[in-house]
Amino acid sequence: MSSASVRSSVRLPAPPPELAALSAQLCTTLVKAIERDGPMPFSSFMRSALYEPGLGYYVNGLHKFGEAGDFITAPEIGTLFAEALAGSLTPLANELGPDWTLLELGPGSGALAAALLPALPRPPARYLLLEPSAMLREVQHERLSQLPAELVGRIEWIDAPPEQPFDGVIVANEIIDALPVERFRVVAPITETVPRRLAVDWVNDRFTWTDIDPDPRLATAIDALQARLPAPLAPDYESELCVDLPDWMKTVTAPLARGLALFIDYGYPAAEYYHPERNAGTLVCHYRHRAHFDPFVWPGLTDLSAFVDFSAAARAGQDAGLDLAGFTTQAGFVLESGVGDRLAVLENDRERMQLATELKRLVLPGEMGEKFKLLALTRDIPQPPFFNGFDQSGRL
């Protein structure tokens, strides 16, 4: 069987032979499923490409984060983002009391936890890391074991949301974008526009796009989306929907008895996500710090993600019994936190330059500042103060 990635039009460096062999194993698994069941809905392809046991991108044991991986998250850049978060969480921690819990979903390399715990004046009684990957747990453990023993003793690893309710904070940094999405295309028969479900087929020894009838769940979700948009989606419009988002949101926030759930990711409000000119969707792939748009390149070695529809995320949170407490850009959040004020008091030129570079990456529009957003959802607490000056909830 030919590797699908070799036949792609995207020009990317080939992986070492052992990694190419791993990708070929995943291709074989996908092809067998297609030959058995017919064209595979893209959501199923994405789920396998990311999470197929032993082979998927997030579970195959390869390094993902930082300069040596495929992408860099805000906590990997330095400590400023964690310091901004710590300053914003401190009033809430004081209100919740000494027994508050912090639950981090998908902690990646452990960079956020490593910087956030020491930065909190009142650290949580428990810092829970929800991480099902044994390999990533090892990476996180190695990093976090360098913290003071008093902080290490607060850390616990879990592989599912806790069953017992807690007062505290849930942080999800670049998690929603990795949930499998459905892709759809609007077509125009004689009488009306209808959506088609985009699927993956195996033709002439390569993966290729095709379309199939949407299942009832997707059809209902697209109808609801169209009803909320200011104008119908035009023929040939392609995009994504995360139909799993409402159930996922209910599951991960169910243990939060009182506190804040904070979702940090790249994305748009619905009106911008489904803008008429964004007619090819937002699906993006990352391979060795190169972004491209062909999800069939080196399956298992390439990260697949879709931008987040923050309007849908906010609605899912409200349906799960949470209150919308704020929505802002990463630039607004970081600047309002005041962490940039450290530049004025640093006397060491090298440290000042390093901090300025880090701050620019976090806040400039051409970097992460406008692309990344923060969505705050709360249960049984006042609105967090850190969105007051830059709140953009009206865009949702």
Structure overview:
This protein is of the alpha/beta class and 396 residues long. It has 14 helices and 16 strands. The protein has helices at residues 17-37, 42-51, 74-77, 80-96, 111-119, 134-144, 149-152, 216-228, 245-253, 270-273, 310-319, 330-337, 342-345, 349-363; strands at residues 40-41, 101-105, 126-130, 155-158, 166-173, 182-187, 194-203, 206-212, 238-241, 256-268, 284-287, 290-292, 303-305, 308-309, 323-329, 372-379. Helix 4 (80-96) packs across helix 5 (111-119). It is globular and about 60 Å long. The relative contact order is 0.15.
Q: What would you say about this model in short?
A:
This protein has helices spanning 17-37, 42-51, 74-77, 80-96, 111-119, 134-144, 149-152, 216-228, 245-253, 270-273, 310-319, 330-337, 342-345, 349-363, and strands at 40-41, 101-105, 126-130, 155-158, 166-173, 182-187, 194-203, 206-212, 238-241, 256-268, 284-287, 290-292, 303-305, 308-309, 323-329, 372-379. It is an alpha/beta fold and 396 residues long. It starts with 16 loop residues before the first helix and ends in a 17-residue tail after the last strand.
Which descriptors would you attach to this protein?
single chain, 396 residues, alpha/beta, Rossmann fold, five-stranded antiparallel beta sheet, 16 strands, globular, disordered N terminus
Shape: globular
CATH class of the domain at 74-178 and 246-272 and 307-395: Alpha Beta
The number of helical runs is 14
Q: Provide the structure class.
A: alpha/beta
Order of helices and strands: HEHHHEHEHHEEEEEHEHEHEEEEHEHHHE
Cα radius of gyration in angstroms: 22 Å
Question: Fraction of residues in helices?
Answer: 25-40%
